[in-house]
Specification:
With about 400 residues, the protein is an alpha/beta fold. The chain has helices spanning about 5-15, 45-50, 60-70, 80-95, 105-125, 145-150, 175-180, 205-215, 265-270, 285-300, 300-320, 345-355, 375-390, and strands spanning about 25-30, 30-35, 40-45, 100, 130-135, 165-170, 185-190, 190-195, 200, 220-225, 245-250, 260-265, 325-330, 335-340, 355, 360, 365. This is Acetylornithine aminotransferase.
Amino acid sequence: MDSEKVIARDNNYVLHTYNRNPIVIEKGHGLHAYGPEGQNYLDFTSGIGVNSLGYCDLEWAEAVSRQAHKLQHTSNLYYTAPCSKLAKALCRRTGMSKVFFANSGAEANEGAIKAARKYSFDHYGEGRSTVITLVNSFHGRTLATLTATGQDGFHQYFGPFNEGFVYAPAGDIDRLTKLVDAHTCAVMLELVQGEGGVVALDPLFVQEVRALCDEKDLCLIVDEVQTGVGRTGTFLACEQYNLRPDIVTLAKGLGGGLPIGAVLVSDKVAAGMGPGSHGSTFGGNPVVCAGANVVMGRLDERFLAGVREHGAQLRAGLEKLPHVTDVSGLGLMLGVQFEDGIQASDVLAACRERGLLVLTAKTRLRLLPPLVVTAHDIERALVILDEVLCGMDPLRP
């Protein structure tokens, strides 16, 4: 089926909750996505950070295929080897005690909120349930995680929104401290605010939040849905902040292209989450876990060193481009701010026409290439961006 027919059918039958790019992707390999008419795109989006090993990595695809031929699903009423193998790898890699598997980042964050409230209820009783999040944060699109998201633009249309969330400006420990009262149970952070413009938190602020949580016995939740699984150059971004949270959430790149979420908890939080406290029909699915185990096996220190090296190469190249005023983020999670008059959405559209797929976040261009990106891929992307930006006039209305 050609692109025009695919787009027309989609427009007829799929609920229009996405502003899709006007292209069809039929297949992919590595960093390259292909359309039905032979279009070739260099993909620096990795499915919004999901395709950590690129498109259709051979080892990953074979592991998923073997498991699908063996056992595709059995529910959490029984044990499976891929699930327990992944749980062991995650706990040993992060130093956390236990893990709960879900199907997405939003579900993982829902589980994290429940776990924090359960800990607080067990130790302090009813009424200590408020979670402090940061202004400009993003934690998901379910009703609870939408409310946890610290952006007014998301708090429309779907009310009433859940109670139990308040917001502090990122970097302002005094404002955050003043929000803590007898009803507070947790603080929830993204170490790099992805949807909020790819803005990394100040390390001192993060350590001050950790100290405050220790003093008040609050659970510190770190949302690593986008920053985790090697995206910033370490397995967790927490490692670069010398931070040990009480709860960490993962998703996106962990599955390598299949839907997964994970809630990692410390000993103190794990103790309260017994049978019946949470659940998921599909969580820990053996096919998904088989793919995730390949991702986990690939992310050794040599691999992560390559992520850091290529992240530094990409950042340095972006900083030299015309009309660029700032490059933010960590590792291979970067945001690009332009001079007034240059719109990130216009840059995205022009890049797409030249065969480069990128993202936006707020006013910034956002780059999330697969972790297997090469130096050659980066140079090619920079050439396209340079051509695009050289052709733009920031003074033109």
